[in-house]
């Protein structure tokens, strides 16, 4: 086997372990997941976990790096645009709203995709008992998104104090992530078999514009 072939095979094995570990950790939790179960789910020899990652803990951290990179790949361009707008002089309010809706709409699309089911379960577990994996996710992705949205809302709603700006941002994000964490109940309430992403985004965009109406200073 050539060097390139061995590398491709190694990359394939590593990817298979990451995908299997994402599912097993999400379903069983860190302590409930065994390296044997992960290896079986990936259809590889258990010893390859040690070869590629070194330990179960390192594999768990690698899963969160993989999730973070996937989130960045999907959302970074929109967040970059908002940050560039904040640095530019006199950007029209409608331009901010359009990009802000793009960020929240993109997040809503992610929430209803099957691939994010296990990501969400893992992130929820980590937020209930934050550890190094959550810290890395927050520093690389969550914190950046929240900080950028906070700066945008502060710019659009100068009458609000810092606390209310942050609470408003949390309200905006909350109506997005509910489509993952409470999806089954919401779909039953609405009588949907599958989420209607266009209806979700239309309601979301309307709510964002209502939330961003400047409130009187307290």
Automatic annotation (TrEMBL):
Question: What PROSITE patterns would the database entry show?
Answer: HTH_TETR_2
SUPFAM superfamilies from the UniProt entry: Homeodomain-like, Tetracyclin repressor-like, C-terminal domain
Q: Which InterPro entries match?
A: Homeodomain-like_sf, HTH-type_TetR-like_transc_reg, HTH_TetR, Tet_transcr_reg_TetR-rel_C_sf, Tscrpt_reg_YbiH_C
Q: Which GO terms describe its molecular function?
A: DNA-binding transcription factor activity; transcription cis-regulatory region binding
**Positions in coiled-coil regions:** none
Domain spans labelled HTH tetR-type: 11-71
Q: Which UniProt keywords apply?
A: DNA-binding, Transcription, Transcription regulation
Note whether Iron occurs among the keywords. no
DNA-binding region spans which residues? Answer: 34-53
Superkingdom to which the source organism belongs: Bacteria
Kindly provide the name given to this protein in its UniProt entry: HTH tetR-type domain-containing protein
Species this chain originates from: Marinobacter lutaoensis
């Amino acid at each position: 086997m050539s060097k390139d072939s061995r590398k491709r095979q190694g990359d394939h094995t590593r990817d298979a372990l990451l995908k299997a570990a994402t599912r097993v950790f999400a379903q069983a939790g860190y302590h409930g997941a065994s390296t044997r179960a992960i290896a079986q789910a990936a259809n590889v020899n258990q010893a390859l976990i040690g070869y590629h990652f070194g330990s179960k803990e390192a594999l768990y951290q690698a899963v969160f790096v993989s999730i973070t990179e996937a989130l960045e790949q999907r959302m970074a361009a929109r967040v970059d645009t908002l940050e560039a707008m904040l640095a530019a002089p006199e950007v029209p309010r409608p331009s901010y709203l359009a990009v802000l809706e793009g960020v929240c709409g993109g997040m809503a699309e992610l929430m209803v995709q099957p691939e994010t089911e296990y990501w969400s379960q893992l992130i929820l577990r980590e937020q209930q008992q934050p550890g190094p994996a959550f810290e890395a996710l927050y520093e690389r992705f969550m914190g950046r998104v929240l900080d950028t949205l906070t700066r945008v809302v502060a710019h659009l709603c100068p009458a609000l104090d810092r606390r209310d700006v942050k609470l408003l941002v949390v309200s905006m994000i909350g109506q997005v992530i509910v489509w993952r964490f409470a999806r089954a109940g919401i779909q039953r309430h609405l009588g949907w078999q599958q989420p209607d992403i266009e209806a979700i985004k239309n309601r979301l965009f309307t709510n964002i514009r209502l939330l961003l109406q400047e409130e009187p200073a307290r």
